[in-house]
Write a structure and sequence with these properties.
alpha/beta; binds calcium ion; single chain; 16% strand; rod-shaped; binds ligand C2E; 19 strands
Length: 652
């Protein structure tokens, strides 16, 4: 019973590994405090005896021996239990000196209790036990010496000045043991408290570490995120300034990544991003940084160079890195990336601006065909500013009805009859005059304004079909261009249906022209929408045919009625007619085999038309017949054309 109670009170917890370092630090610190106190005691012991007693040798020599021994021990044992035990003994030997100096005066025994209390500063029981044992031993031995009147250095040995005896030794011993137990318990509590404190401190530290990792890293790839990138960039800027060096910000955006996500699912997309992250990490140097700042957007910082020309091989290496086949979840994928580059401090000294410039340059790389890099330039910047102006101006222009559709006739080669027209957008700007769509369509696409504009174009096309019908012309088809971005408009189908119904037109007279990019991006969604549009009876024309690479397989999958041969093939037709244009011939033949209407665009010369006619191309469009013209002019042309032809379409 007593044993278990004692065990409960005096069972000292051993220091767990996580707290070891803190405890060792504390022990070393306490060793130093103790040594300081020892030195102070030495000074006091010396001072007291030299002033009032002739026992100064005890104070100076005895205290000195203890002090020097402990200092020597500190060099070998600091922070260890040996050191603590030695300090415990040393502290008590000072009691011995004080008591002996004062010839056993009882007040001097209080030093024992103060010393024991001080030793509790060590969060360890050993020095206290060592000290208590020293005291009890001292009392016993000196009591014995006193009893036999033995003197030391000419001074009688005295431990109790009022007489000695075992009863007094015992009484003192009991007090010392009691004090030791009380202090021992306090020390036990201190140790437990310190360990607990360490435990929670460690937990907080661990949590902090985890938090700072997750807040600084992208959870999918483990790469630094935008926040961490910016923090690191601040250091890199400081470094570049100090050493007069440059660094490059590379903005990477994977090409057609959305297709992979849409068609194979996010799991595959995520795995691919992880592989990309690993690959990128593996090829950059230790000083460089790869971060992921968005879906499929990565930033690479190429650090510490003097001349920009060293960059090109590295960037080319990154581009080619993407060219191998990627295997993700048993899918074999092809991938490429577009890279924009901005240089510190050449392009800008502001981090935000550098990132923006690299982004702009990346867009240029995309616009120029993807799978390439582009450096930021001042011209590019000016262009971007101009584009921002245009983008802002477009809303006003729309309200003030500055947009207009022009019509370029489509002609039946055999008969010369206008069978329809392509509606082409024009911007009749109040101050800048006529702006061609090449200058603003892509901006409208980027800003999303094309959605609003596109709706209007479709409605306007339906309205002119109505007006043509009302003017008495039958079977005149009008096509309008629909860009990729418009397929993100969830209501594209609804808008077309609405335009057809409101104007009560024959849907087969309306057709939409789509380019390859429409078919490539958002593949599945687009296919669905196209099928629904086709279901209305509206025609679908594949624009700029022959320029891309998806040709045949896509043609089969998509509900297409006609092919428009790109102008570049028509340009190949030479006046001398000796050269056969194999590709052009193949496209015409292919269109016919697939039972599609084939129309050639950009026909500027009579011989081009003749060539096309001979190869069996039925329709054409181009400056040779007419440029795109305003509605009024188109009606006049239509009238003239019909007047010159018989009702059966034969020339008269
Ligand atoms: P596109 O759809 O390929 O249109 C044909 C372009 O070739 C038109 O340029 C037309 O004026 C031009 N063209 C026609 N015949 C000839 C010729 O014989 N010689 C030469 N050199 N050029 C010829 P435009 O009107 O400047 O339009 C450029 C592009 O802008 C269009 O290319 C189309 O991609 C886009 N675009 C035009 N209007 C619209 C629109 O309403 N909506 C959308 N989304 N895009 C449009
Ligand atoms: Ca077109
Ligand atoms: Ca075209």
């Amino acid at each position: 019973m007593i044993r278990t109670t004692l065990a409960h009170f005096f069972q000292f917890q051993s220091v767990p590994a996580f707290a070891e370092k803190n405890f060792t630090d504390h022990f070393i610190y306490a060793d130093k405090v103790m040594l300081t106190l020892i030195v102070i005691q030495w000074i006091i012991a010396t001072a007291i005896t030299s002033i009032s007693y002739d026992t100064y040798l005890y104070g100076f020599v005895g205290g000195g021996l203890i002090t020097l021994t402990l200092f020597a021990a500190y060099r070998v044992f600091k922070g260890t239990r040996t050191m603590r035990a030695l300090v415990g003994v040393g502290m008590m030997l000072f009691s011995l000196i004080y008591i002996q100096q004062h010839l056993g005066r009882i007040e001097m025994h209080f030093h024992v209790f103060i010393a024991l209390a001080i030793l509790s500063l060590y969060k360890d029981i050993l020095p206290i036990i060592a000290a208590a044992a020293t005291t009890i031993l001292h009392h016993g031995v000196f009591n014995f010496l006193q009893l036999h009147d033995i003197s030391l250095f000419g001074v009688p040995v005295m431990v109790f000045n009022y007489g000695c005896g075992m009863d007094i030794v015992l009484l003192h011993g009991i007090f010392v043991v009691a004090e030791t137990m009380v202090i021992g318990f306090i020390v036990k509590l201190q140790i437990e408290y310190a360990i607990e404190l360490n435990r929670s401190e460690n937990q907080v530290l661990g949590l902090n570490e985890e938090l700072s990792f997750t807040s600084l890293h992208d959870s999918l790839t483990g790469l630094p995120n935008r926040h961490s990138l910016y923090t690191q960039l601040n250091l890199i800027v400081a470094n570049a300034n100090r050493n007069d060096r440059k660094f490059a910000v590379l903005f990477l955006d994977l090409d057609h990544f959305k297709n992979i996500n849409d068609t194979l699912g996010h799991n595959v997309g995520d795995e691919l991003l992880k592989s990309v992250a690993q690959k990128l990490k593996s090829i950059i140097r230790e000083n460089d940084i790869v971060a992921r700042i968005g879906g499929d957007e990565f930033i690479i910082i190429l650090n510490d160079f003097n001349e920009v020309r060293v960059l090109e091989p590295i960037i080319t290496k990154i581009l080619t890195l993407f060219h191998h086949e990627w295997t993700v979840k048993s899918h074999f994928l092809r991938l490429s990336t577009s890279i924009g580059v901005a240089i510190y401090p050449d392009d800008s000294k502001e981090i935000d601006e550098l990132m923006k410039y690299a982004d702009i340059a990346m867009y240029k790389a995309k616009a120029e065909g993807r799978d390439q890099f582009s450096f930021f330039t001042a011209t590019l910047n000016a262009k971007v500013h101009e584009e921002v102006d245009i983008a802002n101006d477009m809303h006003r222009a729309f309200e003030e009805e500055e947009f207009e559709l022009y019509y370029q006739p489509k002609v039946h080669i055999e008969s010369g009859k206008i069978i329809g027209a392509e509606a082409l957008l024009r911007w009749n700007h109040c101050t800048k005059g006529m702006i061609s769509p090449d200058q603003f369509i892509h901006i409208a696409e980027n800003t999303g304004f094309i959605l609003k504009l596109g709706t209007w174009i479709i409605e306007e096309t339906a309205r002119i079909i109505r007006r043509i019908k009302d003017a008495g012309y039958a079977d005149i088809h009008i096509s309008c261009n629909v860009s990729t971005r418009q397929f993100q408009n969830l209501n594209l189908y609804g808008e077309i249906k609405n335009a057809v119904q409101t104007n009560q037109i024959d849907p087969t007279l309306l057709s939409i022209e789509i380019t390859e990019s429409v078919m490539m991006d958002y593949l599945e969604v687009t296919l669905e929408v196209l099928k629904k549009i086709k279901g209305l009876g509206v025609h679908i024309c594949r624009d700029d045919f022959g320029t891309g690479y998806s040709s045949l397989s896509y043609l089969r999958r998509f509900p297409i009625d006609s092919l428009k041969i790109d102008k570049s093939f028509v340009d190949d037709i030479s006046c001398c007619q000796k050269n056969e244009t194999i590709l052009l011939n193949t496209i015409i033949a292919m269109g016919k085999t697939l039972n599609l209407n084939v129309i050639a665009e950009g026909v500027e010369q009579g011989y081009q038309m003749e060539y096309l006619k001979e190869r069996g191309c039925e329709f054409y469009q181009g400056y040779y017949f007419s440029k795109p013209i305003p509605e009024k002019a188109f009606f006049e042309l239509l009238k003239k054309n019909h007047a010159s032809l018989g009702t059966d379409g034969e020339l008269i």
